[in-house]
Design a protein that fits this description.
This protein is about 40% helix and about 15% strand. The structure holds 6-O-phosphono-beta-D-galactopyranose. 6-O-phosphono-beta-D-galactopyranose binds next to loops.
């Protein structure tokens, strides 16, 4: 079987990771600005200079047959303070960018929030604070109206769980709080309410485009499926990272199973999880109106029963074998023998993508469509003679995932597109510039782009619609 002619073969970007110009052209601050400066390991300037280089990147898309691009709008480029005053230069920048997409035959799939809440709102508690929800809705409304002639595919948020866990459990995103499950759950709920309100407004206003949300979904397998304790640990990890958000997205409420586990984890953390019935009404309404789910998937986890204290080490340098993840009350994520990993200890399990999309179809039969909005491999690419960048492991990684995806499509899952993370190299939030993902290599000194072997390979896949 082949991918259908209307299947979208795209590639993804995110504003803060590639644009550069993070504190110029009227853009307001985000928490990352100070955090990265203080950390001193790497800078978001000029990143891949997408703010100026986007015509080059879009031309490359066109030349390589890539007909969809994920772009995010930097909220603080439009509203420097998160709300109120508008920065017209930022507004015009995205007009030019979307027009350039269409000129090149590349459909923009636009995300409103990709890890970059304006600093003024972040400081006040980010999505744990209800004011941020209201500010997000105003920002969303503005974008829907302003870009209605240029954007037909919207996503409210990129990766709700990674935001929550990295901000409040793993501590790798500002404000770098660790092991606070209560805050993580509250922030996820806040984002889901903001998402729901934005979806409902988009539908109320009768715009002709479509709208959804992106979740990062890793399949959780028990390390020993015959050990009930491991099965329970995998279940808890799944509920916290996946099911809580899938329930909110497709049911519009949290099922009893989800709530039992979430309440248990929050209580163990010394907290409580409360929400307003009005939130549920919004969420239910949005669940019945959402057009698609964006699913980011890079890895799966094997989870083992764990009774000890919290211990997490993030491998942000690419030193293989240094990652640790033991979460009290949940379990321990382990590297299973025989399963390949990347240098950053991400387990490569292409079948996990298949298992997750099948699970969505079975557990949430009201889902309408799925786009794989990110998948790809972080790799220390090397630039060889004659501009050759041979990234065979990445090709193999993407190929296997596409094969499993095609099998899911054959079995009736409605997957409408696939976006490689990433279009060109850009920095990785908690890892920096040595973790490259691009189809196109970026020489950060000259900002020149070079197609990697994977770009030529992807071009052939797109042309023949098969892997
Ligand atoms: C997702 C994000 C992207 C991107 C990617 C790779 O979580 O949406 O922004 O960074 O993962 O992850 P990382 O950069 O941590 O390797």
């Amino acid at each position: 079987m082949k991918f259908s002619e209307d299947f979208v073969f795209g590639a993804a970007t995110a504003a803060y990771q590639c644009e550069g110009c993070t504190q110029s052209h009227g853009k307001g601050k985000v928490a990352w600005d100070d955090y990265l400066e203080k950390q001193g390991r790497f800078s978001p300037e000029p990143a891949s200079d997408f703010y100026h280089k986007y015509p080059v990147d879009l031309k490359l898309c066109n030349q390589f047959g890539i007909n969809g691009i994920r772009i995010s709008i930097a909220w603080s480029r439009i509203f420097p303070e998160g709300k109120g005053k508008i920065n017209d230069e930022g507004v015009q920048f995205y007009h030019k960018l979307f027009q350039e997409c269409h000129k090149n035959g590349v459909e923009p799939y636009v995300t409103l929030h990709h890890f970059d809440t304006p600093d003024a709102l972040h400081k006040e508690g980010d999505f744990i604070n209800r004011n941020t929800i209201e500010a997000f809705v105003e920002y969303a409304k503005f974008c829907f109206e302003e870009y209605k002639d240029e954007v037909s595919y919207w996503f409210t948020f990129n990766e709700v769980w990674p935001i929550a866990t990295n901000q409040y459990i793993e501590g790798t995103f500002p404000p770098c709080i660790t092991f606070d499950i209560t805050k993580a759950v509250a922030s996820m709920h806040g984002m889901m309410v903001a998402h729901a309100k934005a979806v409902n407004i988009y539908k109320e206003k009768g715009y002709s485009g479509k709208i959804g949300i992106i979740h990062s979904l890793d399949t959780k397998y028990p390390l020993d499926e015959n050990d009930e304790r491991d099965v329970l640990a995998a279940k808890k990890d799944d509920v916290l990272a996946n099911q809580f958000l899938l329930d909110a997205t497709f049911l519009g409420y949290y099922s009893n199973e989800t709530l039992d586990i979430i309440q248990e984890l929050v209580e163990l953390n010394g907290g409580t999880f409360n929400y307003d019935q009005k939130d549920i009404e919004e969420m239910k309404k949005a669940a019945s109106q959402i057009d698609y789910l964006g699913m980011n998937n890079y890895q799966s986890n094997f989870v083992r029963h764990y009774e000890g204290e919290n211990e997490i080490h993030h491998n942000g340098t690419g030193e293989k074998g240094t990652k640790k993840f033991k979460l009290k009350g949940v379990g321990e994520r382990v590297i299973k023998e025989g399963i390949p990993t990347t240098d950053w200890d991400w387990l490569i399990i292409p079948e996990g993508m298949y298992d997750m999309v099948k699970r969505i179809k079975n557990q949430y039969p009201n889902y309408k469509a799925i786009y794989i909005t990110e998948n790809g491999m972080g790799y220390k690419d090397t630039f060889e003679e004659n501009n050759v960048i041979d990234d065979e492991p990445r090709i193999d990684y993407i190929k296997q995932h596409l094969q499993w995806l095609l099998k899911a499509i054959e079995e009736g899952v409605n997957v409408k597109g696939y976006f490689v993370w990433s279009l060109m190299d850009m920095f990785s939030w908690s890892n920096g510039y040595n973790k490259r993902y691009g189809l196109f290599y970026v020489d950060y000194e000259t900002q020149e782009r070079f197609p990697k072997a994977s770009a030529y390979w992807y071009k052939r896949v797109i042309k023949h619609r098969e892997v």
